[in-house]
Amino acid sequence: MKNLLLVSLMIGCFIQASFGQIEKPFTKGNILSGGSLAMSFGSIKDFKPGIDPLPSVTYSTKSKAIESNLSLGYFIINQFALGLKYEILLSREITTSSLTSETEWDITNKDFLIGPVMRYYTKPGIFIEGAAGFRILKYITDDDELKWIKYSMCTGIGYSILINNSVAIEPIISYRFLNTDIPEIEENEKLGELNISVGFQIYLNMINSR
Asked: What are phi and psi of 103, to 5 degrees?
């Protein structure tokens, strides 16, 4: 992924050197809209040694996930935009046992976070982004009711590789902090992760379109 980012940046430098007349669309009154899509697949094996008379067992877990984010923003001044961003995460984990070869757990997760986002661009097209997300989910069964409170904060740096006056490819390096709180059972989970992604952005010149 690091090599992908370096290649993207090199391509961006070449494109902007070749098309130096492309006007930077990071001006007051413009609208930006875009996002990214990521897919991941994983496999984990967990060996549990047997304790007489119970035999040893290996649990095999296969996972897959699709994560996407979309944002819509408005340049309130030159090179600075405010907007709204939401993230969608769909994942599934299937765990089987070596003893029975049958499915022990089949967990599907649908996650949705929404919150504000802001961006500041430098003149060459480098930008700094900050975003936050918030979500409340209730889980209700016949015996219990739980409420998840989830929020995230993300900051990153990226580069807009302008293909033309309106469309850009954007490699981004970001760090996200994710907190999940379940007050009813006093459980709290915190996660910090470093991400490298490539997204697309569309810039709409609202001033010239009037």
From this structure: -70, 120
CATH number at residue 169: 2.40.160
What letter represents residue 7's amino acid?
V
**How many domains would you assign to the chain?**
1
Q: In this predicted model, what pLDDT tens digit does every residue of 54-66 receive, in sequence order?
A: 788 888 888 888 8
Residue 40: strand pairing partners: 65
**Closest C-alpha among 132, 7, 113, 4 to residue 68:** 113
Q: How many CB atoms are located within 10 Å of the residue 126 CB?
A: 13
User: Across residues 45-55, what is the average pLDDT?
Assistant: 81
Structure tokens at 204: 């709409």
Question: 191: helix, coil or strand?
Answer: strand
pTM of the model: 0.67
Closest CA to 144 of 185, 109, 107: 185
> How far, in Å, CA of 157 to CA of 197, rounded?
11
